[in-house]
Automatic annotation (TrEMBL), chain A:
<dbReference type="InterPro" id="IPR017451">
    <property type="entry name" value="F-box-assoc_interact_dom"/>
</dbReference>
<dbReference type="Pfam" id="PF00646">
    <property type="entry name" value="F-box"/>
</dbReference>
<protein>
    <recommendedName>
        <fullName>F-box domain-containing protein</fullName>
    </recommendedName>
</protein>
<dbReference type="Pfam" id="PF08268">
    <property type="entry name" value="FBA_3"/>
</dbReference>
<feature type="domain" description="F-box">
    <location>
        <begin position="1"/>
        <end position="48"/>
    </location>
</feature>
<dbReference type="InterPro" id="IPR036047">
    <property type="entry name" value="F-box-like_dom_sf"/>
</dbReference>
<dbReference type="InterPro" id="IPR011043">
    <property type="entry name" value="Gal_Oxase/kelch_b-propeller"/>
</dbReference>
<dbReference type="InterPro" id="IPR001810">
    <property type="entry name" value="F-box_dom"/>
</dbReference>
<dbReference type="InterPro" id="IPR013187">
    <property type="entry name" value="F-box-assoc_dom_typ3"/>
</dbReference>
Automatic annotation (TrEMBL), chain B:
<dbReference type="InterPro" id="IPR036296">
    <property type="entry name" value="SKP1-like_dim_sf"/>
</dbReference>
<feature type="domain" description="SKP1 component dimerisation">
    <location>
        <begin position="108"/>
        <end position="152"/>
    </location>
</feature>
<dbReference type="GO" id="GO:0005634">
    <property type="term" value="C:nucleus"/>
</dbReference>
<comment type="pathway">
    <text>Protein modification; protein ubiquitination.</text>
</comment>
<dbReference type="GO" id="GO:0016567">
    <property type="term" value="P:protein ubiquitination"/>
</dbReference>
<dbReference type="GO" id="GO:0005737">
    <property type="term" value="C:cytoplasm"/>
</dbReference>
<dbReference type="InterPro" id="IPR016072">
    <property type="entry name" value="Skp1_comp_dimer"/>
</dbReference>
<comment type="subunit">
    <text>Part of a SCF (SKP1-cullin-F-box) protein ligase complex.</text>
</comment>
<dbReference type="InterPro" id="IPR016073">
    <property type="entry name" value="Skp1_comp_POZ"/>
</dbReference>
Amino acid sequence: MDLPIEIIEIVLLKLSVKPLLRFKSVCKSWNILISDPVFVRKHHLRQLQSKDSENLFLLKNSEVNSYGFSLVKFEKKGRKIQTLRQVFGPYLWATVLCFCEGLILISDISKDNFALWNPSTRTQTLLNPKSYLHQASYGLCRDPITADFKVVVVGWYCYSVYSCNNKSWVMVEQNYENKRIGYRLANSKEAGVCVDGASYWASTHPLQIVYYDPRDDKFKILEKPEDLDGGKSSMYLVELMGSLGMYVYTGSDEKSVRIWVKEKGIDNHSWKELVNVENVENVGKSTWRIEPQCLVGDKIVIRTKEPKDDGLVVYDACKKRFEAFEGVKVFGRAGLVPYMESLFFPVEKSSQVVMGLFGFPI
Amino acid sequence: MAAETGTPTTLTLKSNDDELFSVAESAAILSVTIRNMVEDGCAGGVIPLDNVDGKTLASVITYMNGISAIPADEEKKKSYRDKFLSDKDFETLADMVLAANYLNMSCLMDAVSAKIAQVMEKKSVGWVRRKFGIENDYTPEEEAAVKEEHKWTFEGVETDDDN
């Protein structure tokens, strides 16, 4: 059956990464098509828009960082996760710094080596940072204009932007327009929430949301929801279903959590209230430690961060009830990272991965 | 036009192997190609579809009638499409994707191409070459190099069963 190349492209865009890389061996024209940056971008956009990657997460396998991740899917019905496969990153003792649209910025234990890792192609692009990375905060975003990924390293006095053009990193160092921004963000050591083309941070004193805009490499202030009641001392940012989510604890006893979602688009600053989670004291004794993760159906999955009870619960807003997930434990910071199939940076071979003493990649 | 007279209008479609099919206009205009012909007033007699054979056209018309009988409920439409495509073999799917493209039916195009992708997901490179009629233009060294680069993607591939 001879199908014209335009139709073959439409079909291939619907495949996941593994068969696409395999089918580079079919013939030269398929290899050229699948390697084409335009095709990579189209495939990426389709993954963002389709529901193929919905509710997929990388779940850290243990407290220590050496046991890799499980790729899991939250099941639509019930409180279960389905484990699809095991995934290993480029470093043993790796730390996930931040993540964006399927790519993960990861560092080794020395914090001298960094890589932008794509778990779906099993490849990484190594990044050689210049300085002050120990006292910094990180952001990552896909520039909506160039469609390339940018890593922003937020230092105290200035910030560096690394853009990955033509398979090599280009660094630009910039000074802040408002000097206090760098101090506040770098000091917090919180990673940026990297979603929808920008990286967002919540900062205190004053309480505001700051974002890095990759289009002009500047830090800007995002307007908060108008009817923000509560959140007197802190607000928290999180990625929710490919959008920026924000939540605050409300009420005099801070027993409810209001969650908002920002409309798509860097310049669209309007917020929509998603849900008000009541009675959080039922799942977290120290109530400030919960974190919304995703929606399954009309319920919201929440991570509870108790010292001894680091698990997942589902909140049913109609019944105002929590139900625990069975046998799921979430470890540490970035213990649950949204996963998306993407062909970005398929160029560097993963054959550099060296197996360590315990059979895990170094 | 149907809307003016209140009686359903029937169109006659002709495949490239000269089979004739009657189909309600309301169902047929799911195809933008046919809708344009109707709007241009070329639908008075028989509408010739030079790129679709009778067997494929019969299948497309079954789909047109089936999907247009379902009210605006995306879930139900999706499950109809899944069921409609579930028993089709690769050759039929390939014929249908060409027909959907020629007839400019985006919903069928989406569903059939997704189904083909689903069928391909675990297939071998050899299977794809045979089914798509593609000649391997790599030298053995080149092919080995491309395969080596993405070695892990060859794990878990189905053994070819339908030759």
